[in-house]
Amino acid sequence: MPDSHLPSVDELLSIAVGALGGSERQGQITMVEAVQKAIDDEEHLAVQAGTGTGKSLAYLVPSIRHAMDSDTPVVISTATIALQRQLVDRDLPRLSEALGKELPHEPTFAILKGRRNYLCRYKATAGWPEDDEQDQLFDPREVSATGRMVQRIQEWAEETETGDRDELVPGVSEQAWRQFSVSSMECLGASRCPSGPECFAELARARAGEVDVVVTNHALLAIDAMGDLPVLPEHEVVVVDEAHELVDRVTSVVTGELSEASVMLAVRRVGRLIEQPLADQLMEAGEDLKALLAAAPPGRIDDLPQVLGLTLQLIRDTAWRCVTAMGPRNADKDDPDKAGQRKAAFTALDEVHDTAVRMLDAYGHASEADRAEVVWLDGATDRRPPALRVAPLSVSGMLRDKLFGERTVVLTSATLALGGTFEGLAAQWGLGDSKRWQGIDVGSPFDHPRAGILYVAKHLPQPGRDGLPQQYLDEITELIEAAGGRTLGLFSSMRAAKAATEALRERLDVPLLCQGDDSTMQLVKQFAEDEPTCLFGTLSLWQGVDVPGPSLRLVIIDRVPFPRPDDPLTSARQRHVAARGGNGFMAVAANHAALLLAQGTGRLLRAQNDKGVIAVLDPRLATARYSGFLLGSLPPFWRTTDPAVPRAALKRLSTES
Asked: 594 near 417, Cβ under 8 Å?
């Protein structure tokens, strides 16, 4: 029964802010009341809350109150490990202590990740063969590096209390970690596994089932919503923080991959469990796929070539014959070693078979508008061979039915209203036709027109495909000199970031770091601690840099960050929207660019006294027909196209520092 004697969210927020040593902000108050109303009315809510609003507190307070009121946990989902750690290590402990005296008990919380993130005790002790032992023969240096990581994991396994991979610092490669972890499909199950009673993943799930707030990630949220078996404890309310990442993270979860490596993994795992001639047939099908992919050009595959279709059919049918030949799935259930080998073999075969089926089913539709999935070939790189991939053209239906259908969902981020409206992201989430949601912008505590200048270099030529024009390098040089360093350069590609770094290191007398020189965390630390230092990088820096104070006065963006025209998934989605009568460019490419631009410009103001300049070198932000939409997605900085204005402002700021 609901507890009518609980304090209101306004009272709880006031107590929390006072205990944490802050001050209440109007945007935070508006948000906490809107979240509480959405929970009470069982409606969905999208909240745009600018940096400095205190949005974590604004959704945690009503979430905790609801957990107490309903005696059911609330799930908080994030996109990044950094925010997960902030919530679990800093925000929730302090908030629980502050509110504990006002509530029936001190709020409890736990973090829950996918099974692959936890050490499998049984696999660590059973001496299972490494999946990729054949691949290790090629590079002795990688083998020795992997060996050292494996030894470190073994030592850590003796002392860890959680088995959580993120405790391993520095981290380890995926190849090393795979030797100690299993997917949910490979897991024997707690009742059949000899290590079941002490399984780290099961213990984490048990803890999550007993707390008020469960912190997880978008990938596990998607797996829980779309899978047959629940992973998260039963819940009525979900808060999706960093909600601008939700569609991409869900898409990653449901993207399938087929390659020679995945087929050969199935061959190795099926090993002696079936007759050798049948295993050889699957190996030959994998070799056919390898030859085919090596000769094919990378990119989207709109029409199924006959030879690829025949190869996919061969893989599908042979994998199914292998599955049938293995007999009942629960055979050898009393022998954990054999049961583990069988489960691993079934998992690999199922993945190969089901992915081949998906790829074949992606074709044969009467029109482009009826197509549901896109298939493309990812070309080989220095580190991996070519692979076929398949992904849905839209995840809106999945999200509408599986995530939003049976619970209240609150989505929040500093960037949700694109072009001044929530409609773009709402359509991607599957909420476009629903009447059970609303979007609100609670603003920002920053005075953007007074604190920052948005300068668009209208006089420069449009960016081309052949690297940065000389005029761009000249412009960057003059801006950085005016700022005395203190610059974050956000580039649309790593090639552009590296080219700018090499060219400008000879022209500037301030330290210039480039993403890739060291770990991103270490580079950001150096950048923050030494004021004249500049940092250049690409996509992950657009959203991952939080440097308040005088170390960051200038953010340079080299071009409007449209997706690459040859990107298979975004180009297919664009065409699919157009085939259904929509504006594919605006719905996909412009939304993508607006989201990244807003995230990039959001790096500048991180604390109340921050000031500076955003310099966008791409003149299309001032001249193109879609510029109004993009500008409408950005904070209301004071705008100019006059190059003298930002330089003068930066010089003034550099003397103040």
From this structure: no
